[in-house]
Amino acid sequence: MRCEVITSDDMFFDGASMLTAMLATSPIPVVERKIYRGDCELMMTYGVGHKLRRPWFLAHSRIPHHHSVSWDLGYWDRKKVAGVARPMRLSIDADHPWRLIQDSPSSRFAQSPVTLRNESSASGPIILVGLGPKANIVLQQPATTWEREAFRKIREVYPSRRVIYRPKKEDGTSIMGTEKKIGMPIEEVLRGASLVVCKHSNVAVDACIAGIPVVCEDGAARALYNNDMANPVRPTEDERYRFLRNLAWWQWRPTEAAQAWQFILQTVEGLDRAN
Hints:
The structure is a single chain. With about 280 residues, this protein is α/β, with parallel strands linked by helices. It has helices at about 15-25, 55-60, 105-110, 135-140, 145-155, 185-190, 205-210, 235-245, 255-275; strands at about 5, 30-35, 40-45, 65-75, 90, 125-130, 165, 180, 195-200, 215, 250. β9, α7 (about 205-210) and β10 form a beta-alpha-beta unit.
């Protein structure tokens, strides 16, 4: 098995650091390229929302017994520290790994700084989490298209519940009928909420940690939650812990690149056997 690693001069520090570490520790033949060729069984890159890398990622995953490996900013421990690469989340053959998440040892999650909390309130606001510009480009839609439809669905089920709109970043957008909150830690926004509604945001994992129910269409949290606005999943603390314990195997630091390779190769070998 061989792997081509697609890098780019415009990659953010965290993603570039992860790919550099993976190149340095690869147990299989690996080649670094700027342009995709598709002549290796594995293709690995960072940021598959990119206008060039996304088509390559999708094309490679459609080739029988070939797999696309992607990295993006991790699910937790995302605080910036100068000169230190943050943990990165892993996915294989899809934007998010929820279909591949399975029961795994607790050792990785035990090393994380995460502590489960119970901060939900049944009468609290609903948090509507916005998409970023890259997601809208991928979906070929104007900004707030998904958010406005999601708000309509919220109002059908919760006609009088206060709704807080949390855009991915300050972009000047607003949703009539909601209260916009930006510029504060997500933990503060979530505290006392009754529900989080998102398409595929990492905020769903933040909500799981905080004990807030979630409605989502995709993203890692889809392994635990559903997309039923009227009947959202309300997992027990044990169920939340189990999900996060398993999700920890889909987040790695550059210093763990050698172990990440072992996990990736075991996973793709299992996928090939299943097919």
